Amino acid sequence: MNFTIPNWLIILGGCGQIFTALIYPYIRHQVFDWYNDVKQLKPLNQEIAKTYGRYIQGLNFSFGLIAILIPEDLKNQTHLATAITGLIAAYWVGKVATQIAYYPMYQIPQKLHFKIGSYFMNTLFILFAVVYTLLLLHNLKLF
């Protein structure tokens, strides 16, 4: 079976990843009141938490930029394409698994736009996981 992921889908995923990077500070501040929680940590732990938050934001942005700028290279079945799509697939599959396993026990604010936003973001995360997993399988020549 020879299946190719269309560039528009990869680019759409890239735009979504950049969106998640840009919206990330708003979600941390408005939805999760993250900054007030972080203030309760020791100073070093505050900086570590902030650094990890920046890593997440930077990875989401970088993955999106790669998808937008070089979608064809992500599916050319080279070792580098396999490594990059494998990394990004693992990142998003891990995010979705974490979301399912741990996050349902926590409550987000019950305002309608937060609920809708939660469904929208989860849909994006699943889209990213599926697109990059398909790209990985394609690069591994499994389909």
Helix content: over 70%
Report how far the terminal alpha carbons are from each other.
Answer: 5 Å
Return Rg in Å: 17 Å
Order of helices and strands: HHHHH
What is the tally of beta strands? 0
Mean pLDDT: 91
Q: Would you identify the regions where 5 or more consecutive residues have pLDDT less than 50? A: none
Please work out how many helical segments DSSP would assign: 5
Proportion of residues in β-strands: under 5%
Give the overall form.
Answer: elongated
SSE-based structural type: mainly alpha
Described by strand count, sense and barrel closure, the largest sheet is: none
Task: Write a brief structural summary.
The chain is mainly α and 143 residues long.
Polypeptide structure, described:
This protein is mainly alpha-helical. The protein contains five helices and no strands. It has helices at residues 7-31, 34-38, 43-69, 79-101, 112-139. The chain starts with 6 loop residues before the first helix and ends with a helix. The relative contact order is 0.17. The model has no long low-confidence stretch (mean pLDDT 91).
